[in-house]
Amino acid sequence: MTQSKSRVVSINSRSTKTKSAPTKLFVLDTNVMMHDPTSLYRFEEHDIFLPICTLEELDNNKKGTLEVNRNARQASRFLDELVKGFDNGIDEGIPLTKASGGAANGRLFLQTEPLSVQLPASFAAGKADNEIIAVCLHLRKKEPKRHITLVSKDINMRIKARALNVDAEDYFNDKVLEDSDLLYTGMTELPADFWEKHSKGIESWQQGGAMFYKIIGPIVSKLLVNEFVYTEVDTPFYARVIAVEGKVATLQTLRDFGHHKNAIWGITARNREQNFALNLLMNPDVDFVTLLGQAGTGKTLLTLAAGLQLTLDQKIYNEIIMTRVTVPVGEDIGFLPGTEEEKMTPWMGALEDNLDVLMGADNDAGEWGRAASNELIRSRVKVKSLNFMRGRTFLNKLLIIDEAQNLTPKQMKTLITRAGPGTKVVCLGNIAQIDTPYLSEGSSGLTYVVDRFKGWAHGGHVTLQRGERSRLADYAAEIL
């Protein structure tokens, strides 16, 4: 959704007497450009205004290796190309049509004159946020017939702007969804009358230990490939959609990983969603898996169990690589000694805890047997830092991205495109626990890939809903 889409309608509805509503003028805060350098081209037919302090803040943030520093440099390069290729007076605005490839038809205005607005005494002078708000007041005074809107990722700045009757809003172009409750869950409950409405022309056959059903009916249009369907009315039925062709869908029944005979490294599925997740994780034809769920739903344990089975027993992958964003929950503890893997160790407590569970499953091996298994497992499980991923290619690896909700869409793209032939990527996370500044449930890289990959024949998603850690953890997650 572009910044202007949800606003144009309201403008037109207020001005039904005129043939065309006047375009808006959006004043951009620095953090918008540092969050998304392409934001200059995301406002369709509306104009953009950049205060001089925005350019100064971009300049102050261009040095460094963080994502925001790279974005500041990229935004500066975009501005340089726009200004360099425009010979006419900047006061008239720089057209964005050519640079944006037709995506934006407005103009870019830069501040070229001093302000003539006095802010209230309570607003500290010389502060960049207050100067940008002053620019908005100046523009409103200069162009009273035009709708002036401040766009900022800073909540407090938006509150201050509204206190002075300046229209302010968040940058929502990068939001995949307005409401996280609308996010694809990877599963659909079949209606109680499913078999009655879809029994006409149904075909079924058995192959490779699974039952296949070819169905025709009203529900087919709502199904996606690799989506799980289930019903627990009368006889429970669990299946995965393996193909949707026009008005025909093909369903395949699932392997029951809740039964002990199908245990994966001593781990069995404790609920319906865990069974769905293991069916995706153990399927070598599914290259990309995303698992969402609150703490204690079993995301990491199921993924590691499946990874060890596929790596050590079935030898489909030759190594498990685990990585995550190093965003601290509390205060940063400073620099960490040692190699890359040793530096990442404090961040990988979840890996250690789950490996202890998996290695403790075999009680008959004895102390020496467990020690040998421990050494073998740790030789196949590698911990890598995100900082050194750019430019790498993983061949026949299982790449696990933990705490993926803290990744931006751009970082997520960088990681997933590391996958070479024979590599499977699994993203784990809980979008209710985002620690990265300026990221929300709607704009997280994890939300982004769940929405973009749904329906792909080699990708699958499951939202785990029931906690299985302990009764204490489940109760705490519910009431706290």
Q: What can you see in these coordinates?
A:
The protein is an alpha/beta fold and 480 residues long. It folds into 3 domains: 165 residues, 5'-nuclease (Rossmann fold), CATH 3.40.50; 74 residues, Beta Barrel (Elongation Factor Tu (Ef-tu), domain 3); 210 residues, Rossmann fold (3-Layer(aba) Sandwich). The protein is 32% helix and 18% strand. It is built from 15 helices and 18 strands. The strands form 3 sheets. It has a 6-stranded mixed beta sheet with strand order 3-4-2-1-5-6. Helix 8 runs parallel beside helix 9 and helix 9 crosses helix 11. The two termini are 34 Å apart.
Task: Give the structure's gist in a few sentences.
The chain is α/β, with parallel strands linked by helices. The protein contains 15 helices and 18 strands.
